[in-house]
Amino acid sequence: MLSPMCLLWPFAVVYDAVTSVRNLLFDKGILPERQFDVPVIAVGNLAVGGTGKTPHTEYLIRLLKDRNAAMLSRGYGRQTKGYRLATGGTTAEEIGDEPFQIKHKMPDCIVAVDEQRCRGIERLRQDTPADVVVLDDAFQHRHVKAGLYILLTDFARLYCHDWLMPAGRLRESARGAKRADIIIVTKCPPQLSEAEQAQIVKKLSPRTGQKVFFTTFVYGSPYPLFPEEATPCPGLKNRPVLTITGIARPAPLYAHLESQGAEVKPRRFADHHHFSDQDLEQLNQAFEALGKEALALTTEKDAARFLAQAPKLSQRLRRRLYVQPIEVRFIDNHHHEFNHIITDYASKD
Predict the structure, then answer these.
(1) Do 91 and 308 form a contact (C-beta atoms < 8 A)?
(2) What is the spatial distance between Cα 198 and Cα 194, in angstroms, rounded to a whole number?
(3) Quick check: helix, strand or coil at residue 262?
(4) At 5, is the pLDDT very low, low, confident or very high (cuts 50, 70, 90)?
(5) What is the DSSP letter of 64?
(6) Per the omega criterion (within 30 degrees of 0), is the bond before 166 cis?
(7) pLDDT score at 3
(8) How far apart are CA 42 and CA 40, in angstroms?
(9) How does residue 15 score in pLDDT terms, banded at 50, 70 and 90?
């Protein structure tokens, strides 16, 4: 009996042909790429989801705060179309989960969405004082010619070990990695050795001039999603924690919580999942069944959707629902080199 991989492989070959022809047309100038008179940094990946784009985008925005950095996204999953400039009152439904998360965490940051990135950059230049634009999830969006491309790949599933959709999770062939100026291996174990890093670099086979960095996640202290109703967080040790995730790969989060002594009770949903009334009622019941010592915890990305659903959550769940913040940390203090590359590019006239 043929394996699912064998059955899907012919479709992956067709997909490879289509994406390769598209890239060739851009490479030859037959399809136009547009450059702008402002530094543009494109952040993305070859695989579908799960590489940690949003925390890395946040890192860039913090790094470039003195340059009036703006983040432009297509706004995946939003219920609107066209260009939208986020304000303090903008909802996740209007701009999407990740842009809302960034605007919510960094209110002074310039955040906009537009499925047409060229138009979005034009509007940002008209409407804001942005001196540099960070394009989120834009590695395949080739109508914009960015000045710096950052490619992310998950430590647990390097693009060189993956396959094209639908046989695997790649949006385009691993050959596309050659367009990157910087490759970041994300979600690494904190103690990844130099020898292990060297082995990964060998597997990735970067072209001459490409820089390869390694990052891990640092987990902060959970904070209440509804602080006006919350009870003080009593700590996670030896407590059942209803862990609600709608992200591509929640395993690192589970491992972190277990390292803190939590009894993880996972409720996993698909990436960008929209929580239905039935989902919320099931969460209410699941939390109630865990007993009076239980806590609930979700990701910053998922928190954006829960804010709009507050009335449908039980009072007890609202009072004990916490958000797990994460930040990016470069392994072996290589952030100095990375930061220099980014700020040097952003400062060019």
Answers:
(1) yes
(2) 6
(3) coil
(4) low
(5) T
(6) yes
(7) 58
(8) 6
(9) confident
Give burial (CB, 10 Å; 0-12/13-18/19+) of 246. Answer: buried
* pLDDT tens string 294-319: 999 999 988 888 888 888 999 999 99
Q: By the 8 A CB rule, do 46 and 176 touch?
A: yes
- Give CA–CA dist 342/302, Å, rounded: 29
H helix or E strand, kind and range, residue 218 = strand 211-219
CA end-to-end span of the chain: 60
DSSP-H helix ranges across 161-314: 194-204, 251-259, 277-289, 300-308
Q: What is the residue whose two structure tokens read 């996993």?
A: 268
Alpha helices in the chain, H assignment, sequence order: 4-27, 53-63, 92-95, 97-105, 117-127, 194-204, 251-259, 277-289, 300-308, 315-319, 335-346
List of long-range contacts for 232-237, beta carbons under 8 Å, 24+ apart: 233/295, 233/322, 234/295, 236/260, 236/261, 236/262, 236/295, 237/261, 237/262
Percent of the chain whose pLDDT exceeds 70: 98
- Asked if residue 217 lies in contact with residue 250, where contact means CB atoms within 8 angstroms, the answer is no
For residues 49 and 89, the model is more confident at 89
Residues paired with residue 244 on neighbouring β-strands, in sequence order: 267, 298
Separation of alpha carbons 14 and 11, rounded Å? 5
pLDDT digits (tens, 9 = 90+) for 39-77: 999 999 999 877 899 999 999 999 999 999 999 999 988
Phi/psi at 191 (nearest 5 deg)? -100, 30
